């Protein structure tokens, strides 16, 4: 979690400015974008992304800002201020109806999620005619660069090695829209003696793939199994 968001309480508002390389600045001078976070308690918050000059790009509600768990509505905007995408989330998963629009205001995509499953998807061209959703996705982001999967090596903890502890540690983590690893936690493990190294192994990976929705970068969740085996 970014340091400027740690230890915040209800009613706190934090404004952070960043340059084009996603480096945090001390003020708005030279900023390419800004992120405003309004806390309703230590974890719940509403986050607003601005692109110069003070244009709102996205507003999203989180039940856990640290782990980027969306809960409530997320709205994404075009540069002209019109709505690009409107989605609802419940405990980090899409729920209910979602709508995506062209910049002229016409519906681009309509989908619906129930019990964490998509039960409806309809796509339309700019004139309102029905079209194949795969074709629409390719048009939305035609220049997406293929990603090479990153790997990491685990370093066996000395105490676990001495005790002969082996097994697979499953680690979950979230990469934010700028490609930064913001939180890592263990979801399954044969022994706590392996957990610290499993988290450290994930943190040693320097490049992550950012998820895209309609070619817009989004928070991306990963689950990675790491095998500890004594040869």
Describe the structure.
The protein is globular and about 65 Å long. It is built from three helices and 17 strands. It is 10% helix and 46% strand. The protein has helices at 133-140, 158-163, 195-203, and strands at residues 13-18, 24-25, 33-39, 45-51, 55-64, 69-77, 83-90, 93-94, 96-101, 107-114, 117-124, 130-131, 167-175, 181-188, 211-213, 216-218, 220-228. Strands 1, 2, 3, 4, 5, 6, 7, 8, 9, 10, 11 and 12 form a twelve-stranded antiparallel beta sheet that branches. The protein folds into two domains: 3-140; 158-228, TolA/TonB C-terminal domain. It is mostly beta strands and 231 residues long. The longest helix is centred in the C-terminal third of the chain and has 9 residues, at 195-203.
How is this fold's topology laid out?
Layout (H helix, E strand, L loop, with lengths): L12 E6 L5 E2 L7 E7 L5 E7 L3 E10 L4 E9 L5 E8 L2 E2 L1 E6 L5 E8 L2 E8 L5 E2 L1 H8 L17 H6 L3 E9 L5 E8 L6 H9 L7 E3 L2 E3 L1 E9 L3
Antiparallel strand pairs: 1-2, 1-3, 3-4, 4-5, 5-6, 6-7, 7-8, 7-9, 9-10, 10-11, 11-12, 13-14, 13-17, 15-16
């Amino acid at each position: 979690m970014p340091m400027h968001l740690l230890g915040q309480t209800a009613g706190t508002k934090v404004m952070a400015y960043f340059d084009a390389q996603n480096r945090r600045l001390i003020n708005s001078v030279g900023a390419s974008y800004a992120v405003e976070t309004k806390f309703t308690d230590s974890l719940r918050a509403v986050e607003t992304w601005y692109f110069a000059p003070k244009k709102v790009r996205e507003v999203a509600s989180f039940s856990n800002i640290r782990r980027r768990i969306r809960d409530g509505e997320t709205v994404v905007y075009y540069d002209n201020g019109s709505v690009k995408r409107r989605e609802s989330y419940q405990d980090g998963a899409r729920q209910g109806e979602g709508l995506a629009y062209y910049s002229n205001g016409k519906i681009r995509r309509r989908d619906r999620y129930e019990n964490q499953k998509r039960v409806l998807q309809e796509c339309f061209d700019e004139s309102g005619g029905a079209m194949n959703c795969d074709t629409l996705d390719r048009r939305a982001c035609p220049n997406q660069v293929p990603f090479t999967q990153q790997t990491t090596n685990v370093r066996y903890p000395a105490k676990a090695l001495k005790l002969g502890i082996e097994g697979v540690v499953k680690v979950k983590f979230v990469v934010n829209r700028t490609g930064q690893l913001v939180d890592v936690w263990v979801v399954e493990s044969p022994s706590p003696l392996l957990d610290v190294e499993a988290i450290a192994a994930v943190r040693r990976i320097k490049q992550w793939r950012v998820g895209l929705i309609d070619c817009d970068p989004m928070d991306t969740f990963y689950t990675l199994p790491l095998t500890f085996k004594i040869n």
